[in-house]
Amino acid sequence: MGNAGSLRDVHLNRRRIAGVGVLIGLGGLLGFTGMLLVSSAIVSAARQRVNQLEQPPGELAKRTWQQARAATTAGAKAWRNSPPATVSS
User: Fold this and answer.
1) How far is Cα 35 from Cα 28, in angstroms, rounded to an integer?
2) CB contact at 8 A, 80 and 87
3) Alpha-carbon span 30 to 58, nearest angstrom
4) How far apart are the C-alpha atoms of 65 and 44, rounded to whole Å?
5) In this structure, what are the phi and psi dihedrals at residue 52, rounded to the nearest 5 degrees?
6) What 3-state DSSP class applies to 30?
7) Residues 43-80: pLDDT tens digits?
8) pTM of whole model > 0.85?
């Protein structure tokens, strides 16, 4: 019962709590603004990098896919046409 009486004696400074809330809000706003600026810089750098490439990324991916398909087909043909393995003991 002694604890219940001490809870009534707690006084909160509402002005200080409101000030802390405003500071937290401003910090969040600054953090969000910084995140937007960094994201914008990264996107801009990526666009510049893509523009400097000799081949567009789509063509490069298409060529690489065709090479992988050709290699797979060649490997499958070689596996099918190979002579059976003999086991010596």
Assistant:
1) 10
2) no
3) 37
4) 28
5) -85, -10
6) helix
7) 999 999 989 988 888 999 999 999 999 999 999 999 99
8) no
